[in-house]
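Q: Could you fold this chain for me?
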Amino acid sequence: MSNAYALILAGGSGTRFWPLSRNAKPKQLLNLFDKSTLLDQTISRLDGLIPKENILILTNALQEEEVRKVAHMLPPENIYAEPAKRDTAPAVALGIGLVAARNPDAVMAVLPSDQLIQDEEAFQSVLKDTLAAAEGSDGLVTIGIKPTWPCPSYGYIERGKTADLGDLKLTHEAVEVVRFREKPSPELAETFLREGNFAWNAGMFIWSVATVTAELQKHTPQLAEFIEELKKSSDVLATIADKFAGLTPISIDYALMEKAARVLNIEATFDWDDVGSWISVAKYIDLQGEDNRTNTDLTAIDCQNNIVFNARKGSKIALLGVNDLIVVQTDDAVLVANRHQADDIKKIVDALPDHLL
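A: Sure. Below is the predicted structure, expressed as structure tokens.
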């Protein structure tokens, strides 16, 4: 698909996986599951569908060096660092502008770099249909994840009737999006699950450059103007440096998706995990003894339900009579936490000295 582009978002912070993750090396740059990083897997999933010269990565200055190491298979000029933190809508607008400058007739996918998807064939099948739907309609397209439990931590997409796409034939059904729903209470999430017409919002968006710029012009003209400046710029890097920091911070959901005239949704048929904490990682590492999950040769006596991750070569971890712990060892730090407080590890990070961040 020579007309197809991908923008991979590879920024973020390294709080939930401290001490393995740091500001310069967040989740998508870690070897959590095998020898490849989540960013490397995100790029590999596009093989054969989107040409490498059409894959762009947006990161930040702190992580740029590590991103370039991981994404060495891409043209170096396809990797850009935001000069300031401005939330997802300005970041996505920057990516749209970069694609528009290369090909104003392009269709593009915006993809997070920190999600675990193992079924590449199913992923490509869904993405191929979303690209076709975006190119052949006047809608913005999302990929939704079928909920497996009433999670209150995700945004939800309310799915409506089957979309009329004329003569366009897809393998996967596209439906009209009724509306986006914010992170619900546990009780409301239960209702969504029972009703059955809701999907988790995974932050994967697909659209034609023409359609998305027209929608931004209506709803967020500042971003549309920025895209136009990038499109016409004779020095893109200088334009980014001059204009980006002045953009209003706002999420892409608020700036665009919740206001757009037409949004379509195709439900994922592939596995998906946003890997939000060490609890998520534990599902993919080895089981040892009394339900202890570990990536290392662990010695454990009278211990249950622990998560142990050792990134320090040549070291040994041993546990005696402890339950429900998260133990993570690196060369310069050790974390010991209650596994039921995995989401609060960022509180520890807030209290750490700068040299450990």
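A (continued): The chain has a mean pLDDT of 95.
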